[in-house]
Specification:
alpha/beta, Beta-Lactamase, Rossmann fold
């Protein structure tokens, strides 16, 4: 059966399709056999013979072109190039763009925004800034006539193609904003309403001093004991944007300062360069997976390794191998809390005894907003709050009234709260019998360790954050 070309075909789309078919063939996926039978040598071949044969990308492109009804790849390429929209000059207005860029980025820096969002709303761009984890409407207004100019301007800033409007693009750039150097990652994704741009602001200098994390001394000292272990696995867990990578960077920076260990990372993406550490960018564009990177890095004689994220069984397999063969390994996972992370590791279908033998502990964290110092006021929790929160400690509670400095939110800045689960024989027994998450949580509650919610309420009792903020971040 002959395939039909997309309404707006592009060579980049077809090349990606061919590469995808090649990967599926390498993975022994039988659904590619019907297309590969367009090759003369596979016309009457059995599926097992096709899947066991060596196939090149050129052959896959030829077979794909035949499937679309063309005589070869060159014929398909000529047809698509003739139908593609000819390149047009960018719509950047040289008078409007510099002013709008300056206004948007200056606002982002002054607010301490982590991200700037530019999204189409009907026929114009709307700007929002993510400050302390929450999106806020921008004071910058973009006219309908300026919208295309601003969009293409940010594309050019990230060295992206302004003529491509139907594919995701990612670029990096370094800007000077009011004398402050700011690295930015510019992401463009097309939606039905138009292209959306999200700019991640990466400070040129990142505070990686663990003493500045805001943790209680007991938590900090315990984590430092973990990272001084010669071998094993440390998992940091939490939702996206909870500071997991920053926590691990802080640990790696402290370990690198000693100068006696070789530290290697595999990340997607590498957002900050840390002196004394070898950092490898991995991902689909680089053609390298986490598992492939770790396997290769093991031959580089590392002492300490950081694997950006563990989300599949293949990655967990190589991480555990590294952890039980003389390396200290850090990684991140997405889980609701530390006990849920243990269940998540089991769900990745690896040997429970290897997990229990390798795992040092799990640190689960969240970021809570700090009360604004300019509008702080004492606030004793009412009786009904104490009745509903029997675990609420005594202390000096505060709240922010709201002021111009915090844009009337009552908060300015964020601090991490954390819970720590240290693996012992009781946890290893639960892992060995493939226990449910409820059993891990029951063991955690009896271990005497503060939960995330308790850690947050202790921070509220010290006047660092507000009770409402803790309950927003840790509702359970």
């Amino acid at each position: 059966m002959t395939l039909s070309l997309p309404t707006r075909p592009s060579l980049s789309y077809l090349r990606k399709q061919a590469k995808s078919l090649l990967k599926r063939h390498q993975a022994k996926n039988a659904d590619v056999c019907s297309i590969l039978r367009n090759l003369h040598r596979f016309t009457d071949a059995a599926e097992e013979d096709i899947l066991s044969a060596s196939v090149s990308l050129v052959e896959v492109q030829f077979a794909l072109a035949m499937e679309y009804g063309f005589k070869d790849w060159s014929d398909l390429k000529t047809h698509v190039e003739a139908r593609e929209t000819p390149p047009v000059k960018t719509a950047v207005d040289p008078s409007a763009w510099p002013e709008m860029r300056r206004a948007i980025l200056t606002e982002a820096v002054s607010l301490g925004a982590s991200d700037t969002h530019l999204e189409w709303n009907r026929d114009r761009l709307v700007v929002r800034q993510r400050v302390d984890g929450a999106l806020r409407p921008s004071d910058v207004s973009i006219d309908k006539e300026q919208s295309r100019s601003v969009l293409d301007g940010f594309k050019m800033l990230g060295a992206l193609d302004t003529t491509v409007h139907d594919e995701p693009q990612v670029g990096l750039c370094l800007c000077d904003v009011n004398g402050k150097r700011v690295s930015m990652r510019i992401s463009v994704v097309p939606y039905t309403s138009g292209e959306s741009i999200v700019i991640r602001h990466l400070p040129d200098q990142l505070t990686l001093d663990m003493n500045a994390f805001g943790w209680p001394s007991e938590t900090l000292e315990r984590f430092r004991r973990w990272i001084r272990r010669p071998t094993g696995l440390i998992v940091v867990t939490g939702p996206t944007g909870s500071g997991m990578t920053t926590t691990i960077y802080g640990a790696l920076r402290e370990l690198a300062a000693d100068g006696g260990a070789k530290i290697i990372t595999a990340e997607n993406p590498v957002e900050y360069q840390i002196d004394g550490i070898l950092q490898q960018q991995i991902g689909p564009l680089e053609g390298v997976s986490y598992a492939q990177a770790v396997t290769a890095q093991m031959r580089q004689d590392p002492d300490i390794m950081f694997v950006g994220e563990c989300k599949d069984s293949e990655t967990l397999e190589v991480i555990l191998h590294a952890a039980i063969t003389g390396h200290l390994v850090f990684t991140t996972m997405h889980a609701d809390d530390a006990p849920a992370c243990l269940r998540r590791l089991l769900d990745l279908k690896n040997d429970p005894y290897r997990i229990g033998g390798a795992l040092i502990g799990v640190l689960s964290q969240r970021l809570v907003r700090k009360i604004c110092e300019d509008c702080r006021e004492s606030h004793e929790p009412p009786a009904w709050v104490r009745q509903s929160l029997p675990e609420l400690p005594t202390g000096k509670f505060s709240r922010g009234k709201g002021c111009p400095a915090c844009r009337n939110s009552g908060y300015r800045g964020r601090v991490a709260i954390a819970e720590m689960l240290e693996v012992d024989d009781a946890y290893r027994e639960l892992l060995a019998r493939n226990a449910a998450v409820e059993e891990f949580r029951k063991r955690f509650k009896t271990s005497g360790t503060h939960s995330l919610r308790t850690a947050g309420l202790l921070a509220a009792a010290e006047g660092i954050t507000a009770i409402d903020e803790v309950l927003r971040v840790c509702p359970g």
